[in-house]
Amino acid sequence: MRTLLIVDDNVELASLLAVVAEVHGFSARMVHTGKDALAFLDQQVPEAALVDLLLPDMAGQDLLRDLRDKGVITFAMSGVFCGEHFAKAAIETHGARAYFEKPFTARDAMIKVAALVEVSCPSPVSPVPTGPEGDPPGAEQEAGAQDAPQRADRLLPPLEAMVSTETTGIFAKPAIPPPPPLEALVADSDAAVPPPESEPPPPDSGPAADSQPQAGVEEPAPEAAPPPEPEQESWSAPTLPEPDTSEPSSSLPFSGRDVWAAPPPMRVMEIPAESPVPMVPGLAARLLATIAERRASGELRLKRGDVLKVVGLKEGRIVFAASNLGAERLPRFSLRAGRLPNDRLSALQLEIRKGVRTQEALVSLGILNQTELIDLLEQLIREITWSLLDVEGGDAQFVVRAPERKGLVPLALEAVPLVLDGYRKAFTLVRLRELVEESKRYVQLPDAAATASKLHLSPGETTLFAAADGSKTVEDLVLLSELGEREALAALVGFTHLGLLEARVAANRRIVFA
After folding, report:
1. Do both 385 and 499 map to the same domain?
2. How many domains are contained in the chain?
3. Same-domain status, 189 and 150
4. Which of 305, 315, 388, 486 is most buried per CB count within 10 Å?
């Protein structure tokens, strides 16, 4: 049986690929960093390797070259370095036999890998150096790396609990039971979104589950009606008739042209508190900006199929976020973020089964201190919130009378800067090009839901925002900002979705001399 080395920092994805590889005749080995891959290479030379190009400690391209120099048949995969250019570079420059762009189907990928490696043909087994007892050096440190299925059983939840098509795109159908209805996610402050059967349910999901006591969320008081205008005291002289405003008092040239017309006011974004509204790209950003502007409190709930996500706000600031996706729950997120060692997962699950909150178990076991826990929860809030910015399909609703949630860590993140940071970091250049309307002109709106003064803008972003006066093309704005294309487009799309800018059709402005 040939050995396939899988190198990916995503523990869940690597485990799924390892299981599928075993089915297709490989002896799969998993490592999650480039350093561990090189250490494995010193002990054993595998016949093939599947390498993620974005590793936490080194470039995947460098690892491909090292494996190629050892005679290993290499394959590349990535969800960041996408496109024909990167695929061609991985194959022609770095020696990969094939390139897989995430998300891909694990079965089809392994069929192609098996065909290229020719699993059915016998091959000599690379000698493995042994220690004094006849065991491979470092076997104790590998904690069961000699057998992928056994390691997965000991360190990770079962395969059925780890499959999530929404996050990995590996299988066409999810292997986990469908999530509960929306009421089960947010109706009770002590209730939880039930995770997969193999994972013990924490009391709550996301940061809401792993928190310290926090004051409840109350319904904001209704805005007071504006006071009536004071009546003017009548003069002794007769009241003058109101001037006729149908025509300008003085005739101005081009008075009816667009160049003189004031921009129409922005349509006020109504918070969908009565009934859900359909989700479109940018709606979540606009809703969060409006809620922050009004300093409202409640929960923004989004439902798309079986996926349920909640962002909790208090006085316009984000205090927690929750999701029923396994990858966005705190235990698995801790694994993905590198904060939870694989060998401590079993101990953490044991504490959770005893009824201990996940965040309390992380601290009591010495895995994280309180500062590290708060930083981890803030990262999880950002990931869940950023995942809502480009959603199309499903419904969104803001619930003012949300139940009080107990045990929240005292967090308060400014919504608008957090959302804008999501456009900077979570959007690819290809997607930003699709969202920007190049044929239109961008102009500032006078009654935006948020103002630029509340944002932490770079000098280039400040220049871009100031230059958006409706007279410049997208290319002009990018050049004036002196930013890279991706940074400039991210700012442009973020400003638009937050309600600071609006794209308008360019008017034909010509001056004709009679």
Report:
1. no
2. 3
3. no
4. 388
Rounded to an integer, what distance in angstroms lies between the CA atom of residue 98 and that of residue 119? 16
Q: How many Å is the maximal CA-CA distance in the chain?
A: 114
User: Helix, strand, or coil here: 317?
Assistant: strand
The answer to whether residue 243 is domain-embedded is: no
Residue with tokens 């009548």: 234
> What residues contact residue 118 under an 8 Å CB cut-off, 6+ apart?
none
- 3 DSSP assignment: E
DSSP 91: I
Asked if 318 and 311 count as a contact pair (C-beta separation under 8 A), the reply is: yes
CATH number at residue 84: 3.40.50.2300
Which of helix, strand or coil describes residue 54? strand
Do 287 and 316 form a contact (C-beta atoms < 8 A)?
no
| 239 falls within a domain | no
Evaluate whether 11 touches 156 at the Cβ level (below 8 Å).
Answer: yes
Co-location of 122 and 43 in the same domain: yes
Q: Are residues 188 and 305 in the same domain?
A: yes
Residues 434 and 402 in one domain: no
Question: 90: which 2 tokens?
Answer: 């991985």
Cis peptide before 103 (omega within 30 of 0): yes
Domain identity same for 282 and 150: no
d(CA 127, CA 43): 9
| 493 in the same domain as 446 | yes
Give domain status of residue 259, yes or no. no
**Enclosing domain of residue 461:** 427-505
Q: Kindly report, residue by residue over 311-322, the tens digit of the pLDDT.
A: 999 988 999 998
pLDDT tens for 216-232 read: 334 444 444 444 444 44
Closest CA to 285 of 106, 426, 458, 143: 426
225 within some domain: no
pTM: predicted TM-score of the whole model, two decimal places: 0.49
Q: Which amino acid is at 466?
A: A
Segment 363-408, tens digit of pLDDT:
888 888 888 889 999 999 999 999 999 988 888 888 887 777 777 7
Residue 22's SS3 state is helix
Rg (C-alpha) for the chain, rounded Å, is: 28
CA distances from 377 to 167, 180, 212, 278 (A): 19, 23, 12, 29
> In this structure, are residues 75 and 45 in contact, taking their beta carbons and an 8 Å threshold?
no
Q: For residue 442, give every residue at least 6 positions away whose Cβ sits within 8 Å of its Cβ, in sequence order, or none.
A: 468, 470, 472, 474, 477, 492, 495, 496, 501, 502, 503, 504
